[in-house]
Amino acid sequence: MTRARLHATSPEFSRLAFGTWRLLDSPSRATPEGLLELLKVCLDCGITTIDTAEIYGGYRVEQLVGAALALDTGVKQRIELITKAGIYVPNSFHPERRFAHYNASAARLVKSAEKSLRWLGVEVLDCLLVHRPDWLASIDETAAGLNQLLQAGKIRSAGVSNYSPSQFSALSSRMDQPLVTNQVEFNLFHIDPIGDGVFDQCQERQVRPMAWSPLAGGRLFAEGDVAAARLREACAAMADRYGGASADQLGLAWILAHPAQPVPVLGTTRPGRVQAAAAALDLPLSREDWYGLWEAAQGRRIP
Ligand SMILES: NC(=O)c1ccc[n+]([C@@H]2O[C@H](COP(=O)([O-])OP(=O)(O)OC[C@H]3O[C@@H](n4cnc5c(N)ncnc54)[C@H](OP(=O)(O)O)[C@@H]3O)[C@@H](O)[C@H]2O)c1
């Protein structure tokens, strides 16, 4: 699989990342052994980048990832880790929290990154993302935390998630090193980054975005969803031109074809679907088919 830097200053990552948000929903992947098995499938397909977050699984997924990697040092050495910090919700581990809140202050980012390092069982994170903009943190505060972690060698690169272009620019202005990505929702049913300036900014700054929920969280396959049914029909009608490609493969190929060169973050917990996703890298969609899928998903012609 092609390797990619998110920015010239970032480490190399795989062209597709494996997302860990839903791991605890799948009993077969919610154990270190079950997860390790899936990670080996990812590696066999060339997917070496794991995307996780402090909050996933009610703050339990990072521990699970760390436990899976601890079972096999060979696997651990081949993996790059991206994690996120900054969202805090009350739950059984944290009954002291009254309300869900963001916190991207310097002290909190450093504390969270250090916890992630411990739970993932590594000495350095390949990338740390601020999970969402914290409306109460100044750009100086947030940048100070990321700069401190970079300087201390605890993270190799820093980025953001769910930032608007102006929020990205503002934070960038205080960073010692460029932010390397903006991880945003992007799929055939959520096309905002094309029009809201996020992907324009990424191209301008030569930063690769990451695309979360690339299959709209499974909506592409929902029964009784009219738009999804229309999209599946459109996929089936063009499948022959792409060697019989499935709807999930065409949905990923649609993301990969955008000139901002997003890195899709896969959400499946099934080995066969990981393998199918990896094959989507070899499906260069034609311009007309790309617009055809847009039309089917949106239910209207381009303006
Ligand atoms: N930065 C952020 O704020 C943010 C937010 C959300 C997510 N993320 C990241 O993005 C990753 C991916 O998000 P996502 O899980 O929403 O991704 P997704 O790939 O859009 O959706 C995954 C869901 O779709 C189902 N699915 C996949 N292929 C299918 C098929 N062929 N038929 C039927 N169902 C299918 C999966 O079920 P199976 O497991 O059964 O295949 C799973 O429930 C997350 O793990 C996380 O790392 C980041």
Architecture overview:
The protein is of the alpha/beta class. The protein has a domain at 3-180: TIM Barrel, CATH 3.20.20. It has helices at 32-44, 56-59, 61-70, 73-78, 106-120, 139-151, 165-172, 192-195, 198-205, 226-238, 247-256, 271-279, 287-298; strands at residues 3-5, 12-14, 17-19, 49-51, 80-85, 87-88, 101-102, 127-130, 158-161, 182-185, 210-212, 263-266. The strands form 3 sheets. It has an 8-stranded parallel beta barrel. A two-stranded antiparallel ribbon has the order 1-2. Helix 3 packs parallel to helix 5 and helix 10 runs antiparallel to helix 13. The chain is globular, with a radius of gyration of 19 Å. It binds NADP nicotinamide-adenine-dinucleotide phosphate. NADP nicotinamide-adenine-dinucleotide phosphate (NAP) binds at residues 19-22, 26, 51, 161-162, 183, 212-218, 221, 248, 265-270, 273.
- Structural class, judged by helices and strands? alpha/beta
CATH architecture of the domain at 3-180: Alpha-Beta Barrel
Q: What value does the Rg take, in angstroms? A: 19 Å
Instruction: Pick out the low-confidence regions.
Output: none
CATH topology group of the domain at 3-180: TIM Barrel
Bound molecules: NADP nicotinamide-adenine-dinucleotide phosphate
**What portion of the residues fall into strands of 2 or more residues?**
5-15%
Helix run count: 13
Distance between the termini: 36 Å
Largest sheet: 8 strands, parallel, barrel
